């Protein structure tokens, strides 16, 4: 891939991720409800993102290969805070923040810990998508889940497969993005499916 095209993929990924959670956040704020969203899914997603970011920093990978992650993490924290507020679980948010903060430092105490955490990170991130899918299947309703947010996640995952192949070639990172791509497509399709059913009722 030409360097110019690689730069374009990086730029479009950053642009998409800069607003990736905004449609979801707007839907939650407009409705004043987190119906259709799984707190467990978001907590798992946040854990996976934090581990992945820490791994990239630990190994000194190029900044352009993970620049969007701090922005996505910040958006996830804001979204999670809104969900906790609407569900009356604000105190739990402080506990989760402490756990994540301690974990951020613990996983780099030894090289084997960060490597293991990265492999588990793929499972954790996959679990977050599966929990959201399960929630959608149980409620049979997309609720406030944003198909646009999930669709942008599909693009970001696909783009990061390309950039990983062209830069770090890290197999663990590549596997993570492939798994995320498949599951993001699945969640997006499920949300759209339940929206279509709801419209026809």
Q: Please, could you describe this protein's structure?
A:
The chain has one domain. The chain has eight helices and no strands. It has helices spanning 3-18, 22-31, 39-58, 68-86, 90-106, 111-139, 147-166, 171-200. Helix 3 (39-58) packs antiparallel against helix 4 (68-86). It is globular and about 50 Å long.
List the helices and strands and how they pair.
Blueprint: H1 3-18, H2 22-31, H3 39-58, H4 68-86, H5 90-106, H6 111-139, H7 147-166, H8 171-200
Into which percentage range does the β-strand content fall?
A: under 5%
What is the count of β-strands? 0
Distance between the termini: 48 Å
Mean pLDDT: 89
Radius of gyration: 17 Å
Helix content: over 70%
Task: Provide the succession of SSEs.
Answer: HHHHHHHH
Structural class designation: mainly alpha
Overall tally of structural domains? 1
Principal-axes geometry comes out as: globular
Number of helices: 8
Task: Give the biggest beta sheet.
Answer: none
Low-confidence stretches: none
Transmembrane segments: 42-61, 93-113, 173-194
Pfam family, one: PQ-loop
Subcellular location: Membrane
Main location: membrane
Structure at a glance:
It comes from Setophaga kirtlandii. By secondary structure, this protein is mainly α.
